[in-house]
Amino acid sequence: MSDDLRRVVYYSNDDLGSGINLKNAEKIIQLFDKNNSFVINDLLELYNIQLYFKNNLRLPTWSDEKFQKYKNIADEFWELIKNFFLTIDNSNFIKIFKEINFQYTHNFWELFNKLSLFKKIDSSLMSTLLTSKKYIFQDVLCNQELVNYYSKVILEHFEKNPETAEIILSHYEEISLSKKKKIYIPKIFSSAKIELLINRYISLSEPNLNYINLIVNSQNLKLDYKTKFRASKKEREITKSFFEKNNGISYGVEIGISGEQIELKRLEYNEVQNRLTYTYSENHLNNTTDFFSIFKNFTLLF
Question: How confident is the model at residue 196 (pLDDT cuts 50, 70, 90)?
Fold first, then answer.
């Protein structure tokens, strides 16, 4: 199989890297032998190859016959993948998960959900994994049956980690130009509990200003006005603190008329104040008051 840095990964039908991934997939298909031994990342790579064929993605150099041949071989992967996953239980769950490459963690949860493995894994182990590997939380939320089964564990994780309010705010309030991954929120996570989580987020020492803005301008969560007021106050505090620590760059432009200036226009730059100063001759302006001269001044002088 591939080394970890060159493994096949399916991202989307529109991914520009599909060509390279399909070339690597072709090599794996050509060498595939179901009697070989496979580790978890090998099987997740086979699953990603299957996703390419499931979405009818192919190299332009493949004939219809070759595509169908490769697809038939890829179909054989499923039995190997399924049989391995069905061996996962309380005794090896944590160990196997720790071996998974980062780019495949979301695929692991897809298969975990699809094969209903949550019925074999104790809630205490799931809680332990969420605590030690916080980055997986959003991937877990993308799987409805899994969320329903571990609803109490997931609710506890939300309540213990106020920064997870960002997931809620992004889901309900954030406008995205690209398609967002659908996530599922436990039914026992009531509106009151969500608002409590958001208030705890506002109380963090350094909440993200973007999410504070979402709270202030929230429409879908129907937050209490007191919560929005607290967020607005926090927004001002963060902004004030930022400018106190970061004075920024001072610059400016001045325009003046000089009664002593001979040149029609003079430009001076004050390096210390980072300021441009334009001065115009008063004598010239007083002697060019007819319509054509004024037009000419605005066209060429100013």
Answer: very high
CA distance 189 to 195: 10
Alpha helices in 247-286 (DSSP H): 282-286
Contact assessment for residue 53 and residue 70, using Cβ atoms and an 8 Å cutoff: yes
At position 88, the amino acid (one-letter code) is I
Using the predicted structure, report yes or no on whether residue 272 has a pLDDT greater than 70. Answer: no
Contact assessment for residue 5 and residue 45, using Cβ atoms and an 8 Å cutoff:
no
Q: Count how many Cα atoms sit within 13 Å of the Cα of residue 67 in the half-sphere of its side chain.
A: 13
Rounded Cα gap, residues 140 and 184, in angstroms: 9
Contacts of 32 (CB under 8 A, 6+ apart): 73, 76, 77
Q: What is the pTM of this model?
A: 0.77
The residue written with tokens 């080394």 in the block is: 3
Q: Which pLDDT tens digit goes with each residue over 59-109?
A: 999 999 999 999 999 999 999 999 999 999 999 999 999 999 999 999 999
Question: Is 20:8 a contact under the CB 8 Å cutoff?
Answer: no
192 contacts 199 by C-beta, under 8 angstroms = no
Residue 237 half-sphere exposure toward CB, CA atoms < 13 A: 14
Q: How many CB atoms lie within 10 A of CB 279?
A: 17
